[in-house]
From TrEMBL, chains A, B:
Protein name: Pyridoxal-phosphate dependent enzyme
Family: Belongs to the serine/threonine dehydratase family.
Keyword presence, Isomerase: no
GO-annotated biological processes: D-serine biosynthetic process
Domain Tryptophan synthase beta chain-like PALP: 17-305
Species the sequence originates in: Arthrospiribacter ruber
Source species, domain of life: Bacteria
GO molecular function: ATP binding; L-serine ammonia-lyase activity; magnesium ion binding; pyridoxal phosphate binding; serine racemase activity; threonine racemase activity
Required co-factors: Ca(2+); Mg(2+); pyridoxal 5'-phosphate; Mn(2+)
Length: 316, 316
């Protein structure tokens, strides 16, 4: 017995968050299909609210809070998309959000959180400082800590992305997602396990932040030390709850170099004319690196987000 | 009496070219609506085949050729999207396309033409050399010259873009398009004149290539000398046939600076997460410059294309 979100719980989450999220399109590109020798379907979470799939998990976690807990608001530490997603979900619910951010977080990320009415608490740029500061905030305010990925309500929310993909009626041979903390990958694997257990679930991971790959191989959680990759959404180490699901329901994790990521990213910009962040290009890079495995298959690829610094695009 | 394309001819063109083009989506952005204080609908021709609306006019012109003319193929001089669009339309029809390009045309543009099987004839980078070389090619091959915009079949094809917008059932108060040679603007104005004569048709034009604006004011065609703007798709001077339609059916032409274009372009990248070329951002820039005129209105904006050099995006 586990307490993983069940299929019915994932469906309930989808109904619960529907007023707060976009149903994002599943796009195809004839040009990329020709290059890949496969039939690819891109789930465009770059068009999602706050520009990333994180809107799903945050909306679900906030919506599930009891009335009493809601009064005190929510808190998290994050310098990425979860921070903005949680601030927005809280704002929609009319409750406070306390976001602990490292003092060196990019101004644009702080601006996004403030734009949604989130209260930023700055701390030193170390994991320890983040956690200590968060503990203090939670103690002071009584806010509920919503972890960016190591949280079943969050995983349940992220699982609704694959649910929408399956609702399109396509018999995917494989589904691919990037892996950082493992919320999206875990949710995708769960939904697909229920709806199409034979579909392969394959993650893409940057070589410079390959803790999920190494943990998956070793069958034990090996945290990341000093990650270094252009895919800045995938720097975090895999979560505990996420790792359990991944060990059970994910078929493979493929690592790719930054060069391969940039090349796949360029392909998506040039051929699909859409803006994605580097992390999104990781699964396509993994597919193109292993083209033979996917020949003539129907593959669903989750493009996880589109929040990128336009002044620092890696194209030459 | 004029021999402008009639509504029924535009509808026939739409049916004729449907197998060769995408029906592009009409997207909205809550964030941009809030900034603009209006309800904007973006027709995404950046997702069109060859990455620009030019696919419509070229497909229509090629499809309308008689069997005899088809045998000898088509020819044009262009270094932009029309070159690729004509090469593709000819390739689909199984006929040759002769594209006269200046020797200094970007490698990426030549590659696109070659990719569609077009035959490139290089010439000196002057308008005179282009025209002389084209004359020679036409004399030698018997190919039919398809002008990029000063051609009713091309205008009729571009007019199908607005036709699709009107088919969405939205009561636009205004429709906006960029103006370079005037094919898209002329076609948009014609279709809207037939279907909703009270809708305002407004063009955006770069200050550094403002011949349409000046011609419109003076009511006579004033060709552009030495245009200079980031909107490289709008460098050409207005066509004769196009100008006649524009004088009759366009309500206003608004000029904007390159700075205003870049700022509108950034907004579209950041908020809509889509890739557009600078020319596309000109109408939104024109709207934002004149916000009061559009307050609470429903405005359709044509995003004309997405072929941009990713290594040279103007964001800082």
């Amino acid at each position: 017995m586990t307490n993983y979100p069940s299929l019915i719980e994932i469906k309930q989450a989808h109904i619960r968050i529907q007023p707060f999220i976009h149903r994002t399109p599943l796009l195809t590109s004839q040009a990329i299909n020709e290059i890949a020798d496969a039939e690819l379907y891109f789930k465009c979470e770059n068009f999602q609210k706050v520009g990333a799939f994180k809107a799903r998990g945050a909306a679900n976690a906030v919506s599930k809070l009891g009335e009493e807990a809601k009064k005190n608001g929510v808190a998290t530490h994050s310098s990425g998309n979860h921070a903005a997603a949680l601030a927005r979900a809280a704002s929609v619910a009319g409750i406070p959000a306390y976001i602990v951010m490292p003092s060196n977080a990019p101004e644009i990320k702080k601006k996004a959180v403030k734009g949604y009415g989130g209260k930023i608490i700055e701390c030193e740029p170390t994991l320890q400082a983040r956690e200590t500061t968060l503990d203090e905030v939670v103690k002071e305010t009584g806010a509920t800590f919503i972890h960016p990925y190591d949280n079943y309500d969050v995983i349940e929310g992220q699982a609704t992305c694959a649910l929408e993909m399956w609702e399109e009626g396509i018999a995917f041979d494989a589904l691919m997602a990037p892996v950082g903390g493992g919320g999206l990958l875990g949710g995708t694997a769960l939904t697909s396990h229920y709806l199409s257990p034979d579909t392969k679930i394959i993650a893409g991971e940057p070589e410079g932040a390959d803790d999920a790959f190494r943990s998956f191989q070793a069958k034990k959680l090996i945290p990341m030390q000093g990650p270094k990759t252009i895919a800045d959404g995938l720097l975090t180490s895999l979560g505990k709850l996420n790792f359990e699901i991944i060990l059970k329901h994910v078929d493979d994790i493929v690592t790719v170099s930054d060069e391969e990521i940039i090349s796949a990213m360029r392909l998506i910009y040039e051929r699909m004319k859409i803006v994605i962040e580097p992390s999104c290009a990781v699964p396509l890079a993994a597919l193109l690196k292993n083209k033979k495995h996917f020949e003539d298959q129907k593959v669903g690829i989750i493009l996880s987000g589109g929040n990128v610094d336009l002044a620092k695009l890696p194209f030459k």
